[in-house]
C-alpha cells in the first residue's frame, strides 16, 4: 500500500503518450465513484474499498494512481475531497470546458439535455446543423446556428473541444470544419473512422460496437456454461454402469 502510506506529493503530470488510455478511463471511473461517495458524506477510502466498489483490485487502483504521484495517508487511506481535486487536475476538468456540437438530430438534442456534462465542467455552448429548417431553433437553451458561423463562434468563445453528431457520410466534412475553426479535440459519435491531422485528439463513441462487446461477453459466458455435444456424450457414457 505504498501510495496510502505517504503524504500527497505534487508531481509534474506525465505526457498522455506515457499513460495507457485504459488507465485514464479508470481514473474517470474512480472520480465518479469518489464524487458519489463524497456526496453521501464519505470522507476517506482505501484502495481496497475503492477497488471493490468498481471491480478492481487494490493493487490496480494503487498502480493507476502511481502514474500521477502519491496521494494517501498512513492509517487513513485517501481523503475523498483531496483525491477528487487531484483527479480533476489529472483529467483537466479543474477548469470550464466550452464545447461546440455539429449535428442536432435526435442524438444531438439528447446530448444537449444531458446534465452530466455540467457536473464535470463541460458545457455545450454552441450547436450547428446543415438543415435550414433547424437554424434558429433553441434546444435546451442553445440556439442552432448555420455552419457558416462555426469558425467565428469557435474563435470568439475560445472553444477547443467539439462533438460530431452527424451521419457517417458527413462526419469527415464536419471534422474538417471543426479543425479549420481551431478545435483541438473531437468526440465522434458517427460510426466511421476520421482522418485527422497530427496534434488533433479524437475519441470515438460507437454504441453499436459497445453492444457488440457486450454480446460477445454474454455469448462467451453462455458457451462456458453450456457443455458441447461431445462433452455431454462423454459425461453420459461415463455415467453408464460398466
Structure report:
The chain has 242 residues and is α/β, with parallel strands linked by helices. It has 3 domains: 2-91, Orthogonal Bundle (Arc Repressor Mutant, subunit A), CATH 1.10.10.10; 97-205, NAD(P)-binding Rossmann-like Domain (Rossmann fold); 208-236. The protein has helices at residues 21-39, 47-54, 58-66, 80-91, 106-112, 116-119, 150-157, 168-181, 207-225, 229-239, and strands at residues 44-45, 78-79, 97-102, 122-128, 138-139, 142-145, 161-164, 185-188, 201-204. Helix 8 links the parallel strand 7 (161-164) and strand 8. Helix 1 packs antiparallel against helix 4. The longest helix is centred in the first third of the chain and has 19 residues, at 21-39. The protein is globular, with a radius of gyration of 24 Å. Mean pLDDT is 88; it is low at 1-11.
Provide the descriptors you would attach to this structure in a database record.
seven-stranded mixed sheet, alpha/beta, disordered N terminus, 242 residues, Rossmann fold, single chain, Arc Repressor Mutant, subunit A
